[in-house]
Amino acid sequence: MELNFEGVERLPLKEFTEKAYLDYSMYVILDRALPHISDGLKPVQRRIVYSMSELGLSAGQKPKKSARTVGDVIGKFHPHGDSACYEAMVLMAQSFSYRYPIIDGQGNWGSPDDPKAFAAMRYTEARLTPYAAALLSELGQGTTDWQPNFDGTLSEPVRLPARVPNVLLNGASGIAVGMSTDIPPHNLREVIDACIHLLENPKADLDALLEYVRGPDFPTGAELVSPAADIRAIYETGNGTLRLRARWEREDGDIVINQLPWQVSGNKVLEQVAAQMRAKKLPMVEDLRDESDHENPTRLVIVPRSNRVDCEALMAHLFATTDLERTVRVNMNIIGLDGRPRVMNLVGLLGEWLEYRIQTVTRRLQYRLEKVEARLHVLDGLLVAYLNIDEVIRIIRTEDAPKPVLMSTFGLSDAQAEAILELKLRHLAKLEEMKIRGEQDALAAERDTLQKTLDSKTRLKKLVRDELAADAEKHGDERRTRIVQRAAAQALDETALVPAEPVTIVLSERGWVRAAKGHDIDPTSLSYRSGDAFLAAARGRSNQAAMFLDSTGRVYSLPAHGLPSARGQGEPLSGRLNPPDGASFAGVLIGAPEDKWLLCASDGYGFVAQLAELASRNRSGKHVLKASGKAQVLRPSPASSAEGALVAAVSSSGKLLVFPAAELSELARGRGNKMLGIDAKKFAAGEEAMVSAVVLPPETALKVVCGQRVMTLKPKDLEPYLGERARRGALLPRGWRKVDELAVEG
């Protein structure tokens, strides 16, 4: 069978895909994701509001099932999924999402903790709010264009004739193709005042409008803490970010949070605070409660441990580490009157909306003027009939086609003759003539007023201004979001949140670590895993950082309070750190940031370093001690900075050298100075090396450890070993020359 493609359009695949994607993009941008400046609504929202008005669900009427509304919307105007349509409907009913809700819902319409936990549409009922009248009240007055629905059987409005700039009042958010929008809600009274000022002063600049619009006004209140310059920049450019912070107060010693930032869940905040409490990062907090109810939608209670707790510092920490403070993105991307999306600043947005409003009012007045003139024309014909009632009755009774005879006899138009023929007998009374003349006078006066208003820009602007002021009085309310200049929140230092309890950090030969409470523990008496043994220990505080020196000279930091308890056998450091392959740990350091430690290697070189210079935040550590060749990293030792402190170093040949600690350099990293004179050839051959070095505070005894035996050298016993740095030192007594390590007594 031969295929025949005659009459089929042929397109290159590149052109077809490009056109298809562009068409889809424009559909998403213009008909789904972005609001229009006229009424601030997306197509699905506009169709929902219009369908509800057609169903008679105005503010004063009895609500109907939401499923009825959704069915009408998707069946008549919006052939898409019912769940998406219902979700759009729910959003317009949530008082915590919309600053001025358009739909009044009955039933479960979600909560601030879970906005999408609303009941199914078969359970909920809905009607329009009084505010919705500001979008719909002028719909049947010739104010908007109409278009056929998707199947051409009905008509729907292209836009709603909004009496207020809803696009700013309720805001909008949406993601299109290649662009998005995030417009925050604003206060109606402030925006209307700015509109009136711009109407009266068309050349007003941004600073003049900011006298009225001080910033966004969110439905959940809270505080807007962004600097004034940042807020101004957002209204000048149309995009930026805002910082929102929860409002709190002291109540009987407790901290009560009564307003949360927009779109923040109270349950999530409680979970975040509770997680910090479980991690022992909030020792100053004793309890946490959620006392929210119908009367107090938001009431989170934080109970400090005592009256001495600095609540301001605590809340600043929570603002920095939880959703009690969050940033809100602003991108005022709107479809303008020309049908094109663009990012607008405040002046341009309000100016263009006022242009639309003036066009709408002009169309409304023109529509009414045409109606009035048509009615006056009909009344003129009716008056002719009353003045010649007998002749009119005769013509109607005797003529087969009375309309043309009436038109020719009395000079009537087709509409006038039709109106006469449709008169009922009861309207032929004498009083009807008086009513007609009265109606004529009233309509003539209205016609003159309408004509004067249409002919005068001043009168037209005054009418728009008066209507805006009336809507502000009817629908406006006080600002909810307080604008406050506050410094950026700072999280408390983690060490400041942890109690400063004495701890002993114990490190085993295989790199297992644990933290024992107190300083009186004997680390050698602890139990170790099979094949493992004690290597090093250091005494410090639980709020300090424990540092670990490995065989490559790298230093790693871990918070002491986060180390496993000494009740067990600890955990391997390799599970928390990333040392190089084959590296082992040489020692542990802990203390205040200003404390100093001696770092050295078996080649006889070393230096003194401050702990603050050694701290490392990453798992791979920081390379600090550069040991050369075959040199091995030795166990670090605390270094006293007191005047008269000494350094004691011993070699594998049993020679001890004691020299002033002041002769040793203080470095942040490197190889350091030569401490003990080691013969280079013997070191290379593995016959001699430095095995241990410590710093002796003034008037402190030195302990020489040889296996299980310990020799104590008091300050006067050290005199034979005193010398200058880098000397060979003096031999220890016979039997004490195979030294395992040096230690400071006490």
Architecture overview:
The protein has 746 residues and is an alpha+beta fold. The protein has five domains: 121 residues, Topoisomerase II, domain 5 (Alpha-Beta Complex); 77 residues, 2-Layer Sandwich (Gyrase A, domain 2); 124 residues, Topoisomerase, domain 3, CATH 1.10.268.10; 94 residues, no CATH class; 154 residues, Neuraminidase. Helix content is 32%, strand content 22%. The strands form eleven sheets. The protein has a four-stranded mixed β-sheet. β21 and β22 form a beta hairpin. α12 crosses α15. The longest helix is centred in the middle third of the chain and has 42 residues. The termini are far apart. The relative contact order is 0.07. The model has no long low-confidence stretch (mean pLDDT 92).
Fold topology:
Blueprint: H1 13-33, H2 43-54, E1 64-65, H3 66-77, H4 82-91, E2 103-106, E3 125-128, H5 133-136, E4 146-148, E5 155-157, H6 166-169, E6 172-175, E7 180-183, H7 188-200, H8 206-210, E8 223-224, H9 228-237, E9 239-245, E10 247-251, E11 254-259, H10 266-278, E12 285-290, E13 300-304, H11 311-321, E14 325-331, E15 333-335, E16 341-343, H12 346-387, H13 389-398, H14 402-410, H15 414-421, H16 430-455, H17 457-475, E17 482-483, E18 502-508, E19 512-517, E20 534-541, E21 545-550, E22 554-559, E23 571-572, E24 585-590, E25 596-600, E26 605-610, H18 611-614, E27 622-623, E28 637-639, E29 646-651, E30 655-660, E31 673-674, H19 680-684, E32 690-696, E33 702-706, E34 709-713, E35 730-731, E36 741-744
Helix pairs in contact: 2-3, 3-4, 7-12, 7-17, 12-15, 12-16, 13-14, 14-15, 16-17
